[in-house]
Amino acid sequence: MQYIESFIGKISPTLYTPFVFVAWVIILWLVKRFLIYRLKRWAAKTSYLWDDVLVKAVAIPLNFIILASAIAIFENLLPLSGRLDHMAGIGVSGCVILAVVIFLDRFVKGLTDVYSSKGIFSKASGGLTRGLIRAFI
Hints:
By secondary structure, this protein is an all-alpha fold. It is about 85% helix and about 0% strand.
């Protein structure tokens, strides 16, 4: 164990950080794909429709959350200057905000599509409602 710690201590963070970044993104992306696949199968078995919409809505925003976490790890592993550290923090915040907006948009659009076909909304008011909600988000 001491040999590994002494070996890692001799490697510059500039060399291993890109590999950690890429490995983190690939591993989390594969885990996300597996979980989304399992959740879709589970949601298809239920009689509720909102769970199908929820699983479909969360799939793309999770990519941005994975990217934000990878940027945060990248930021912590590399000795960045104050300005670059601040820019990385802005990148993480931007990814999270974008993920939340995309999730809300997809979730509300999915709900209005599902429930407009059920007769709760007409097709015209469903489009109007979707437009108003997108403007609010």
